[in-house]
Design goal:
alpha/beta, Methyltransferase, Methionine Synthase (B12-binding Domains), Chain A, domain 1, Rossmann fold, metal-binding, Meth_synthase_dom, methionine synthase activity, Cobalamin-bd_sf
Length: 217
């Protein structure tokens, strides 16, 4: 490979093909040739991740495939991000994300986090089995725009509504947009508890997040 475009195409291809072992070497070669690291991130790695998510959206890839693609993307990011600083101007918004208390299933949450990060959101990941007040405390502490909650269990669904009620009680409901998702969640449930958005998958979650904060142009 000689040209910058050849490297960008190769990075994107390696993400889609889940080649997490060799992508770091390709990214280092790219840097050693004096090419722009930020362009490598956005026009190489993220372009590949976008393609992977398109395949997921078209049901050609499963969640597990997308997570393997993300491993490749992060392997490349570990190299390129050392050579570039993302300024505050590049950040679309700040989102707190986590799996609600009582649930430890986090594959879906991780996928949404990844997609939102690649779209330009700063993600505050609280992990899984998150105490309800922690969502609020983290949102306040990080001056977040969004609170994103997920669960795969019907037994913990109501905890999402409890967080919204707690926001109201603490006079904070108008300060944050609340997004929810997960296997048992529906638009009807979102309407019932007063969430601002429900989405079925990570691709839709990104679109919804941008719309909620007015960055969907």
């Amino acid at each position: 490979m000689d040209t910058q475009q050849e490297y960008l195409d190769k990075m994107a291809e390696m993400v889609v093909e889940m080649e997490d072992e060799d992508i770091a070497d390709v990214c280092q070669e790219y840097i050693d040739k004096g090419f722009d690291p930020k362009k490598g991130i956005f026009d190489g790695l993220i372009r590949g991740m976008t393609e992977a998510n398109k395949l997921y959206d078209e049901e050609e890839y499963f969640i597990t495939d997308v997570l393997l693609c993300s491993d490749a993307m992060y392997a490349g990011l570990n190299v390129l991000e050392k050579y570039v600083e993302i300024s505050d101007e590049d950040i679309l918004g700040v989102a707190v994300i986590g799996v609600v208390e009582g649930d430890t299933h986090d594959i879906g949450k991780n996928l949404v986090k990844l997609m939102m990060e690649t779209a330009g959101f700063k993600m505050i990941d609280l992990g899984r089995d998150v105490k309800l007040q922690n969502f609020i405390d983290a949102a306040v502490e990080n001056n977040a725009d969004l609170i994103c909650m997920s669960t795969l269990m019907t037994t913990t669904m109501e905890n999402m509504g409890k967080v919204i009620e707690m926001l109201k009680e603490q006079g904070l409901r108008d300060r944050f947009k609340v997004m929810i998702g997960g296997g048992p969640i529906s638009q009807g449930f979102a309407d019932k508890i007063g969430a601002d958005s429900y989405t079925e998958n990570a691709v839709e979650a990104v679109k919804a997040a941008k719309k909620l904060i007015g960055k969907d142009n």
